[in-house]
Write a structure and sequence with these properties.
The complex is a heterodimer of chains A (about 300) and B (about 220). Chain A has about 300 residues and is an alpha/beta fold. Helix content of chain A is about 35%, strand content about 20%. Chain A has twelve helices and twelve strands. In chain A, the strands form two sheets. In chain A, strands 2-1-3-4-6-5-10 form a seven-stranded mixed sheet, sandwiched between helices. In chain A, strands 7-9-8-11-12 form a five-stranded mixed sheet, with helices on both faces. Chain B is α/β, with parallel strands linked by helices and about 220 residues long. A five-stranded parallel sheet of chain B has the order 1-2-3-5-4, sandwiched between helices. The chains are: A alpha/beta (about 300), B alpha/beta (about 220).
Chain lengths: ~300, ~220
C-alpha cells in the first residue's frame, strides 16, 4: 500500500497536467516527489528553498494572478511557522489555496516537538472559510484533494487544508463531507477523525455506542451530529488526532439548543518530551485502543 | 492630501512616498480605472502600508476612487483605512500594513503572470528602508534574484528610518549581491525617478528612492 504523501504527490501531478492554472509551491520538503512534475511544468512547480514564509506568500501572489496553488510542507512549517502569511497573504487578500501537510501531530515522534504540529487545525480554525480534511487512508487522499481544488472556484469558493499522516486505517471509505456511521449504538456517539477510526473501533467494539467516521471536520457536519446525538443520549465523544477539544466549538454550536455531554480526546497541550514511535506517543497520550476505551468507559459511567 | 487628517503618526511615511507614487501612476504604470480587472495591467503593490494618504490622493487624482472619499479617511463608514484593503478600494492590489508582506506577494504575482505567458505586465512593489528589517523580505530578495524574475521591480523609499541602517553600501548592496539590477536616485526628482523606473533590465530591479531622513 502506498502512503498518503505518495498518493498526494501522484494526485497533484495529475492535477498539474490537467489544469493549466494549478500550481504547487514547496519549501524543499517533498521536492524529490515532484521532480517529474517540475520537469514538465517548471513555471508551475515552484520550490522556493527553505523559506516557508515565502512559500506561503508566493502562493498568495499566485492566487492574485489567478492561479490555483497547492502549498505543501511538513505540518509545523506549513501552518504554524508561516501562520501570519496564511492569515494575511491568503485569507485577508481574499486569495484561495489548498494547503497540504504531512507529519501530523507526531509522525515524527523521534524528531521531537519541532517536527510535531498538534496545533495546526486549531490555528486554521481561527481564520474564516478554511475547510479541513483529515483522510484516514491513502485511497481517500485523491478524492479529498480534488474536492479541495474544486472548492477554490466560485463566489462561495474557499481555501482548504489537507492533513496527511503516516498513520492510516486498514480500510478506506468513499469521500464524504458527512459523518458516516460505522457502528450503531445507543449510549453515545463517538466521532473518530481520520486515522483515529481503527483505534476507536478496537476500543469500543463491545460497547453500546455509535461510531461515526469523519474526514471533513471543517465545515463540521452539524446536522449529521444532531441526528446521531439524538439517538445516542445526547452524549458525544470526539476522538481527534490533533489538539484535544479542537472540534468542541462546532459540536457545542451544533447542540446549543439542547442539554448534552461532550468528551474531547486528542493530543494534550503539555509537552511529552519523549521520543520513540508514534505508537508510543499514542499510548502515552491515551489515544491507543486501551486508552480510548478507558476514557469512553469512564465517560459512559459518569 | 490635506483632505485626509488624523493619521499624524504616519505623516512622514506618507509624504516620503508621494513623489514616487505620482510618477508611477502618471507616467509608468499601464493601469487605469477602466483596466482594473485586465490581467495584462501593471500591478503596483504598496507594501509599506503605513501612511497611505499619498497613495489614496494619487488614486483619487487618477480617478480610481472619488475625491469625496478622502475626507472620511479612517472613519467607520470610509473605505479608506490607515492601512489599505484591496477588498475595499478599487485599484489597491494588496491589503498591507503588517510589514514584509508586499515583496514576497509580488514574487508570487510575478511568477503567476509568467506562468500564464503574460510577459508584458510589470509588478512594482514599494517598500520602506526600515521595512526591509523584516526577514521575510530577505527570503524574497535572495530567491527572486536567483530565479531572475524579469517583471519585478522594487522601489525602496529610503528616508533613513531603519534604526541600524544598511551599512556603507546602502540597501542596494544587499540586493546587488543577490543578482538584482540596482540604482539609487533622488526620490524627489521626477525625471530621475521616471528614467529609473522605466528600465526593464531582464532581471529583478531595485530602485532606491532617497528622500530626506524621517524626522
Amino acid at each position: 500500500m502506498t502512503d498518503m504523501r505518495t498518493a498526494f504527490a501522484a494526485a497533484a501531478e495529475d492535477l498539474l497536467d490537467a489544469d493549466p492554472l494549478s500550481a504547487v509551491v514547496l519549501a524543499e520538503i517533498s521536492a524529490d516527489l515532484f521532480a517529474k512534475a517540475f520537469a514538465r511544468h517548471p513555471e508551475r512547480v515552484l520550490n522556493v528553498g527553505i523559506r516557508e514564509q515565502l512559500m506561503m506568500s508566493v502562493a498568495g501572489g499566485l492566487a492574485l494572478a489567478g492561479l490555483r496553488p497547492i502549498v505543501h510542507s511538513y505540518a509545523p512549517f506549513l501552518v504554524s511557522r508561516a501562520f501570519e502569511q496564511v492569515k494575511l497573504d491568503l485569507a485577508h487578500q481574499g486569495g484561495r489555496a489548498v494547503l497540504v501537510s504531512v507529519g501530523a501531530s507526531y509522525d515524527a515522534a523521534r524528531g521531537g516537538r519541532t517536527h510535531q504540529a498538534p496545533e495546526d487545525v486549531a490555528l486554521l480554525d481561527t481564520l474564516p472559510g478554511f475547510a479541513t480534511h483529515v483522510p484516514g487512508h491513502p485511497d481517500e487522499v485523491p478524492g479529498l484533494l480534488s474536492q479541495a481544488m474544486a472548492d477554490l472556484f466560485g463566489p462561495n469558493g474557499h481555501s482548504s487544508y489537507l492533513r496527511l499522516s503516516a498513520t492510516a486505517n486498514k480500510e478506506a471509505f468513499p469521500v464524504s463531507p458527512r459523518l458516516r456511521v460505522v457502528k450503531p449504538g445507543a449510549q453515545a456517539v463517538v466521532i473518530a477523525v481520520g486515522p483515529m477510526l481503527d483505534p476507536v473501533l478496537d476500543a469500543v467494539a463491545d460497547l453500546d455506542v455509535t461510531v461515526a467516521y469523519a474526514t471533513t471536520v471543517r465545515p463540521f457536519d452539524e446536522a449529521g451530529l444532531r441526528e446521531l446525538a439524538s439517538a445516542a443520549g445526547q452524549s458525544v465523544v470526539l476522538v481527534e488526532p490533533y489538539l484535544a477539544g479542537t472540534s468542541a466549538r462546532p459540536v457545542a454550536e451544533a447542540l446549543a439548543s439542547r442539554p448534552h455531554r461532550l468528551l474531547g480526546l486528542g493530543v494534550p497541550r503539555t509537552e511529552l518530551r519523549r521520543y520513540g514511535t508514534p505508537e508510543d506517543h499514542s499510548r502515552l497520550y491515551g489515544l491507543d485502543a486501551p486508552g480510548i476505551r478507558r476514557s469512553v468507559t469512564a465517560f459512559l459511567g459518569a | 492630501m490635506t483632505l485626509m487628517t488624523g493619521d499624524e503618526k504616519h505623516t512622514p511615511s506618507a509624504t516620503s512616498t508621494l513623489d514616487v507614487i505620482w510618477v508611477l501612476y502618471d507616467k509608468v504604470l499601464r493601469v487605469t480605472p477602466e483596466t482594473l480587472e485586465d490581467p495584462e495591467r501593471d500591478r503596483f503593490l504598496l507594501s509599506k502600508g503605513h501612511g497611505p494618504a499619498a497613495f489614496y490622493a494619487v488614486l483619487a487624482a487618477k480617478g480610481f476612487v472619488p475625491e469625496s472619499w478622502l475626507p472620511g479617511f479612517g472613519d467607520v463608514d470610509s473605505r479608506l483605512g490607515y492601512h489599505p484593503d484591496r477588498n475595499l478600494v478599487p485599484g489597491v492590489e494588496i491589503g498591507s500594513g503588517s510589514l514584509g508582506h508586499g515583496l514576497p506577494l509580488g514574487v508570487g504575482l510575478a511568477h503567476g503572470l509568467l506562468a500564464q505567458g503574460r510577459t508584458r505586465p510589470r509588478v512594482f512593489v514599494l517598500v520602506g528602508d526600515a521595512e526591509l528589517d523584516e526577514g521575510s523580505n530577505n527570503e524574497a530578495i535572495v530567491y527572486a534574484g536567483a530565479v531572475g524574475l524579469p517583471n519585478l521591480t522594487v522601489v525602496a523609499v529610503d528616508n533613513s528610518s531603519a534604526s541600524y541602517g544598511w551599512g556603507p553600501g546602502g540597501i542596494e548592496s544587499h540586493f546587488a549581491v543577490s543578482g538584482w539590477a540596482v540604482t539609487r536616485v533622488n526620490g524627489r526628482d521626477h525625471a530621475a525617478l521616471l528614467s529609473a523606473l522605466n528600465v526593464a533590465p531582464g532581471r529583478p530591479r531595485l530602485v532606491v528612492a532617497a528622500t530626506e531622513p524621517k524626522g
